[in-house]
Amino acid sequence: MGYKIAIIGATGNVGREMLDILAERGFPAETVVPLASRRSVGTEVSFGDKTLKVKALEDYDFAGTDIALMSAGGEISKQYSPKIGAAGCVVIDNSSAFRYDPDVPLIVPEVNADAVEGFTKKNIIANPNCSTAQLVVALKPLHDQAKIKRIVVATYQSVSGAGKDAMDELFNQTRSIFVNDPIEAEKFTKRIAFNVIPHIDVFMDDGSTKEEWKVVAETKKMLDKNIKVTCTAVRVPVFIGHSEAINIEFENEMTADQARAILREAPGCLVIDKREDGGYITPHESAGEDATYISRIREDATVDNGLNIWVVSDNLRKGAALNTVQIAELLVNRGLLKPKSQAA
To answer: Which superfamily is assigned to 131-158+196-313 in CATH?
Structure first.
């Protein structure tokens, strides 16, 4: 007997990736139900070699469903996730709605898998911000070895992190530039084509943006509350794939060679680090891939035990859909959740 899985937000970028990844990885799903708002009812989505028709979230009864993969935004999650959890269905939420709730585990399986057992308090598990997910995958094995004191992160985040409309805006602006049409900025505060924007999410009182705050808070929750973290989050004209330049200060010695060897053995990591032209990974090459890639590993002589690394990952996969499915696999593989159909 397999599991009954609901995909909430099945017509969006991440929802479609979730369906693809469930099929790719052979998740033990007996039934998969794509859900979205009423205006999307009847829309067809692919699941492996099957075509499924979207149903309305508002009308769906979760009592017989085992796991709901939620990717419909924070407000929808706040409205529905507690109700779904109360119906006995475990919600794995891709929004920020419950990430900072002390009763909701925030999980990256390669980093803090044991924390998943706390899901029973609310039947909700949070998926981290896309930029945080790849960051902590790269940092965890290094932290275990030499204890990180401080990190300085600059992100280079693709437009797909802001949804399909943002991808369309980059495409349309790029085309407009080449044919000399007027440039329209709707999703972003300034032109994104052939530009970079140091502004993701809303501004906070201290001058940081909410995106930057998320990286700080989530890294501390998942990795170590004592690590000092500062971040500058930048939107770049790339369709898929987030990149990060990370400066790390350790308590103990960590050479570039040691870091390279550790990361080569670390789960979820793939080191591509040759000191030659093209001996590194760019976001274009990460698109469609599951790994968190690490390049440009080198020592920082300006501080004791300092290191610089370049980290790239497909934000729709490891930053969202893949990590969500991996959390579901964690529940299954650890025997923390049995199919309701089996219990019946």
So the answer is: Dihydrodipicolinate Reductase; domain 2 (3.30.360.10)
Q: Cβ(325)–Cβ(272) under 8 Å?
A: no
Is 3.40.50.720 the CATH classification of the domain at 3-127+321-343? Answer: yes
Active site residues: 130, 242
Q: What is the pTM of this model?
A: 0.95
Q: Of 52, 38, 51, 43, nearest to 6 (Cα)?
A: 52
Per-residue DSSP letter, 159: G
Strand 29-36 versus strand 228-235 pairing type: unpaired
CA distance 274 to 91: 41
Q: Domain-by-domain residue ranges, the chain?
A: 3-127+321-343, 131-158+196-313
**Distance between CA 94 and CA 154 in Å, rounded?**
22
- For the segment 173-192, what is each residue's pLDDT rounded down to a tens digit? 999 999 999 999 999 999 99
Q: How many residues are listed for the chain in this entry?
A: 344
341 has pLDDT over 90: no
Mean pLDDT within 213-218: 98
Q: Is 337 helix (H, G, I), strand (E, B) or coil?
A: coil
pLDDT bucket at 344, cuts 50 / 70 / 90: low
Percent of the chain topping pLDDT 90: 98
